[in-house]
Specification:
- This protein has 272 residues and is an alpha/beta fold.
- The protein has 2 domains: 127 residues, D-Maltodextrin-Binding Protein, domain 2 (3-Layer(aba) Sandwich), CATH 3.40.190; 109 residues, 3-Layer(aba) Sandwich (D-Maltodextrin-Binding Protein, domain 2), CATH 3.40.190.10.
- It is built from 11 helices and 12 strands.
- Strand 10 and strand 11 form a beta hairpin.
- It is globular, with a radius of gyration of 24 Å.
């Protein structure tokens, strides 16, 4: 009897281990976020998304594109949530019924960057005046040319400057913010960037901020849940959990706490 009891006690842990191995493993829910390259390349998501997973248990797979491409990805039903920065395009997205609401979440600003010697003499706080000088001087300028929020802002600024012929030095790379900055760094060109990506950029070379502080350079970000009425497979419940969290005090504090070299990159401004 004693031997049998002893054998039973020895067998229980083995049986429990076998049962645990045979049991199905619970996987965290995963949603897809279509977002702009600036949120990814600035390093924000590496800071923000682990905090959301800890709070919710939900994983987020990020598809980082220009804002225009991100919106198109969602229009095809290939994303559950959007995190982008072109308010006009975002409001159109809602009006078309692809989302039911747009939520402001944070802001930073655009900056015009160029070589420290500033051959076109644009340094100052007037983006319109600066672009006018760049066109007049046929200065080398790298445009993202990718329908991103940054590209849309750049085109608005050229239009405000009354510039149609941007000069012989104007080149569109059709690329993300990081690659555009690398091209500008290697060629000594001017480029418009969001401040967050610039501050996290590791290859500045001779580049520096030359134009900042113009109120027209304000850069607002918004989040939206893709409308499940358009695409029944959209994980709207989990996507809404992210929106609710990122616009809550916890999410907003997490955004505010992200810094590079002591500088805050994004400033929360969700409407509560």
């Amino acid at each position: 009897m004693k031997l049998s009891t002893r054998l039973w006690r020895m067998a229980v842990p083995v049986l429990l281990t076998a049962a645990a191995l045979a049991a199905p493993v619970a996987h965290a829910e995963t949603i897809v976020m279509a977002s702009t390259t600036s949120t990814e390349q600035s390093g924000l998501f590496s800071h923000l998304l682990p905090a959301f997973k800890e709070a919710s248990g939900i994983d987020i797979k990020v598809v980082a594109q220009g804002t225009g491409q991100a919106l198109d990805t969602a229009r095809r039903g290939d994303a559950d949530v959007l995190f982008v920065h072109d308010q006009v395009a975002e409001e159109k997205f809602v009006a078309e019924g692809f989302a039911t609401k747009r939520y402001p979440v944070m802001y930073n600003d655009f900056v015009l960057i160029g070589p420290d010697k500033d051959p076109a003499g644009i340094k100052g706080d007037d983006i319109v005046q600066a672009l006018g000088k760049l066109a007049k001087e046929n200065a080398d300028f790298v445009s993202r040319g990718d329908k991103s929020g940054t590209n849309a802002a750049e085109l608005r600024f050229w239009k405000a400057a009354g510039v149609e012929d941007k000069g012989k030095g104007y080149k569109a790379c059709g690329c993300g913010m990081g690659p555009a900055l690398n091209i500008a760094s290697s060629t000594g060109a001017y480029v418009l960037s969001d401040r967050g990506t610039w501050l996290n950029f590791k290859n500045p070379g001779s580049l520096q901020i030359l134009v900042e502080g113009d109120k027209r350079l304000f850069n607002q970000y918004g989040v939206m849940v893709v409308n499940p009425a358009k695409f029944s497979h959209v994980k709207a419940k989990e996507a809404q959990q992210f929106v609710d969290w990122v616009t809550s005090k916890a999410g907003q504090d997490t955004i505010a706490s992200y810094k590079v070299n002591g500088q805050q990159l994004f400033f929360p401004n969700a409407e509560k």
